[in-house]
Amino acid sequence: MTEKLTIAFAQMNPTVGDIRGNADLIRDARKQALDAGADLLVTPELSLVGYPPEDLVLKPELLLEAQAELRSLMADTADGGPGILLGAPMPDVKLQENPFKKAFTTTGSEIYNAAVLLDGGSLVGWKGKHFLCDYSVFDEKRVFKQGALTGPFPFRGVRVGVFICEDMWDSDVCETLAEAGAEMLVGINGSQFNAGKTDTRQHLAIERIKECDLPLAYLNMVGGQDDIVFDGGSFVLNADCSLQAQAPMFDEHFMVTEWAKGRDGAWSCLPAEKIAPEEELSAIYRALVLGVRDYIAKNRFPGIVIGMSGGIDSALSAAIAVDAIGPDRVRCVMMPSPYTSRDSLEDAELATKLLGVKYDSISIGPAMKAFEEMLAPVMAGTEADTTEENIQARSRGLTLMAISNKLGFMVLSTGNKSEMSVGYATLYGDMCGGYNALKDVYKTKVFALSRWRNEHKPHDALGPVAAVMPERIITKPPSAELKPDQTDQDSLPKYDVLDGILECLIEEELPLVDILAKGYDESTVRRVWRMLDLAEYKRRQSAPGVRVTARDLARDRRYPITNAFRGLTNR
């Protein structure tokens, strides 16, 4: 009878589509598990193909390659070392059949997002995810088949109840496992970051524990995938809900846990390393850095180029870029116009000196003059307006894209969520870019993050220990500087008001009466709502960016561009 078990949890950062590379990560983790004397290695949800694979799982070629690597990993376990519990796509066959006898030549609707247990050179068992994610950034029902409610896996004399991510968010899966004789619950997850989610996960885990009276281990993925960041933070709770192990957030981590069976027959995890979760601003900042770092690395860009305005958005974006990939791979470009203030010129240059990046100054004055002459026949007799302002922004966008084309560096766009929400940005101008670190960060949070980074440096940041921007960038009134004496508040409500209203409209989808009950002016709310609605066409053309809130403007909030509804009411 087994009375002790050593389980190693690999908080991994796989790359979507890099099946061989991901399999090698699993092999490396298994070697660590072997050296640690572990009986079982656990890796995250769909760790073999990366997560979320989206429509890649409709490609038979990808599935066949995954099947070949899965066979190879299964053969690796014949050496008597640790078994492997991993996430992989599996074909639609009866659970008692050998899935390796069926070639992946079918469509995604016949594929499971599965947990697969390999040991002793054999397939011990596998199960499909029951509750497929069909909201927010995930759309699994399009490409995966729902898994059945099943019992635990037998592993070296222990009945291990396995669930897959969303399966923990409802009681059915874990209760079924417990009723079928599971002695512990182990979850493999690809759960994306948003502020405050760490507590949500642990509260849900506690609910499942109280229902099942079983210890629960939760392994989460880490890393960036397009606009998603997986934050790790894996943990183990005993049946009394006590925290026994906690992995760090945002870091790849290898966590070894010792389990023992008590006299009453109940399993428990012995106390292990516990690393406290990040505070809110630290967590958001590290998510932004990781999102940028992995987007650059996984898409093999040599570096980043940023339009440096002397304002807070570009300064914070530059700091994030430097912390992500290092100062030697970041290039900042100031593109002054006749309206650029001396303060902005000084602040931009000082910020780049603090960051240690290469700095260029390229005047857009000649471009403005050229466009004025080019367009004179068409614009004759008209008054100057936002058209001329947008020409400045587009001249800067053209300049940055030329540098990007020539050097191969990716343009990092710098617009924040407040601006993207209300359309305070220029298409093909300051919206140019391959990625946007601040796309889901409200302006008020931009200020808070800038102050935080001037006082703190994350352990994995590649930028300076000291301040990353001059204090004046944080304290001066924000301005696009597209005309004399311009400030953002000429066109927008104060940012604390704007952001408060936007959170009501975007994150909470509140009716007008509830927004007004918070003390906001009705005309201002209606104005913000209208700007939010009308800017949808711009957002559809914007660069992807790191998702850090519960509801972003890309995959979460889906409104039609062609939309005649204008009736924000007092319902």
Automatic annotation (TrEMBL):
> Does this UniProt record's set of keywords contain Thylakoid?
no
Which Gene3D superfamilies does the entry mention?
A: Carbon-nitrogen hydrolase, HUPs
Which keywords, in A-to-Z order, does the entry hold? ATP-binding, Ligase, NAD, Nucleotide-binding
**Top-rank lineage group of the source organism:** Bacteria
UniProt binding sites for deamido-NAD(+): N390, E419, K538
- Top-level enzyme category: ligase
Q: Which reaction does it catalyse?
A: deamido-NAD(+) + L-glutamine + ATP + H2O = L-glutamate + AMP + diphosphate + NAD(+) + H(+)
Per UniProt, ATP binds at G307, M308, S309, G310, G311, I312, D313, S314, T414
Briefly state the protein's biological role. Catalyzes the ATP-dependent amidation of deamido-NAD to form NAD. Uses L-glutamine as a nitrogen source.
Do you know which PANTHER family this protein is assigned to?
Answer: GLUTAMINE-DEPENDENT NAD(+) SYNTHETASE (PTHR23090:SF9), NH 3 /GLUTAMINE-DEPENDENT NAD + SYNTHETASE (PTHR23090)
Instruction: State the family it belongs to.
Output: In the C-terminal section; belongs to the NAD synthetase family. Belongs to the NAD synthetase family.
Would you tell me the protein name for this molecule? Glutamine-dependent NAD(+) synthetase
Organism expressing this protein natively: Kiloniella antarctica
